[in-house]
């Protein structure tokens, strides 16, 4: 989360993807802080309860931890808090894993890195995963952090809008029209009554113009706008029917085939880390704050709280953190076909072979 730009579920211009074999990164924001800020993975495990799925196989006594790389598609922020919590609490170490977390940023091709074997795991949006596979990237989704997409439209509360349909009846909208969620909204409501302008990544223009609405992540720009004295009202795109999983952990199919237990161990630890982060985000926030000095402590706290209901949904409480369903993936694939992003719905069962 940050105050300068918004998470993008795809890079600008999906049309450009046809020229390359794999997807470029899912976000395009300012460059990330350097360094991994690695702390000892051998610290005492936190208070998180045992993973919901499977009993981990204890690493052999004296066996060296397996070195694993996780590439994030943006800088260290609360949306990745559970991964840092898994490392700092010792959840990864308990599974025999020594995990290096690589912060992302503009121009970091996470999907390509995973598919090409430069890293073992990465994070991406569900719509990006489907599009990447359609273009030949043999990546598999494993764990979905955000059950509800934080992508939203932000407007001024003073306008009295009751939903996105109202927002699109007048005024100006700053948005990237080539992205799937924007195409979905345009097809559903039309943009003929609103003036569409390029999204510039900040909130200064929003704060200054009461007639301007803009795309946002509800864990980011609204917090920044409020701190500048504005009155943002936000409406989730998910409530309009377009709700891809966000911060999806992916791996390459080859790793799953060659070492499925390592993949399962990583997901068990990730689940434990996210449970720990939801219980108490402060230890992981402290680590991430050293890596991302552009975000202050108050914003870390606000973002962690804002994202909680998007991660810990009723389905998660019933089925466990990271849950993914065939129905959700199939619905998204059909929507992407309808929008012209995909030519056809891929075999969903093949996609989810390593999930769960």
Q: What string, H for helix and E for strand, traces the elements in order?
A: EHHEHEHEEHEHEHEHEEHHHHHHH
**Which regions contain 5 or more consecutive residues with pLDDT less than 50?**
1-58
Amount of helix:
25-40%
User: Radius of gyration from the CA trace?
Assistant: 20 Å
What is the topology, as strand order, of the major beta sheet?
2-1-3-10-4
User: What's the total number of strands?
Assistant: 10
Give a quick account of the main beta sheet: strands, pairing sense, barrel closure. Answer: 5 strands, mixed
Helix and strand content put the structural class at alpha/beta
Task: For the record, give the distance between the C-alpha atoms at the N and C termini, rounded to a whole number.
Answer: 28 Å
- Global outline: globular
What fraction of the residues are assigned to beta strands by DSSP? 15-25%
Helix run count? 15
Output mean pLDDT: 86
């Amino acid at each position: 989360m940050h105050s300068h730009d918004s998470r993008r579920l795809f890079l600008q211009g999906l049309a450009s993807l046809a020229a390359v074999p794999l997807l470029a990164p899912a976000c395009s924001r300012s460059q990330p802080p350097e360094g991994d800020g690695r702390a000892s993975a051998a610290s005492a495990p936190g208070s998180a309860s045992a993973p919901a799925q499977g009993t981990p196989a204890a690493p052999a006594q004296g066996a060296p931890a397996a070195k694993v790389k996780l590439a994030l598609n943006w800088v260290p922020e609360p949306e990745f808090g559970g991964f840092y919590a898994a490392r700092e609490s010792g959840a990864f170490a308990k599974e025999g894993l020594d995990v290096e977390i690589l912060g992302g940023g503009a121009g970091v091709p996470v999907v390509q890195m995973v598919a090409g074997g430069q890293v073992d795991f990465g994070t991406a949006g569900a719509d990006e995963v489907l599009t990447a596979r359609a273009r030949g990237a043999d990546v598999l989704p494993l764990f979905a952090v955000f059950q509800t997409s934080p992508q939203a439209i932000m407007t001024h509360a003073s306008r009295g809008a009751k939903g996105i349909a109202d927002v699109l009846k007048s005024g100006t909208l700053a948005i990237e029209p080539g992205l799937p969620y924007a195409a979905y909204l345009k097809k559903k409501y039309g943009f003929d009554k609103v003036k569409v302008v390029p999204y510039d990544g900040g909130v200064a223009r929003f704060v200054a113009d009461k007639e301007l609405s803009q795309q946002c992540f509800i864990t980011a720009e609204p917090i920044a706008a409020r701190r500048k004295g504005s009155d943002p009202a936000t409406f989730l795109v998910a409530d309009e029917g377009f709700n891809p999983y966000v911060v999806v952990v992916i791996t390459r199919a080859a790793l799953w085939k060659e070492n499925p237990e390592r993949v399962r161990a990583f997901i068990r630890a990730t689940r434990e880390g996210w449970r720990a982060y939801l219980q108490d985000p402060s230890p992981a926030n402290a680590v991430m704050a050293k890596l991302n000095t552009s975000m202050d402590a108050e914003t870390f706290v606000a973002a962690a709280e804002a994202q909680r209901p998007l991660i810990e949904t009723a389905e998660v409480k019933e089925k466990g953190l990271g849950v993914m369903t065939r129905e959700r993936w199939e619905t998204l694939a059909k929507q992407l076909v309808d929008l012209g992003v995909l030519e056809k719905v891929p075999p969903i069962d093949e996609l989810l072979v390593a999930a769960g």
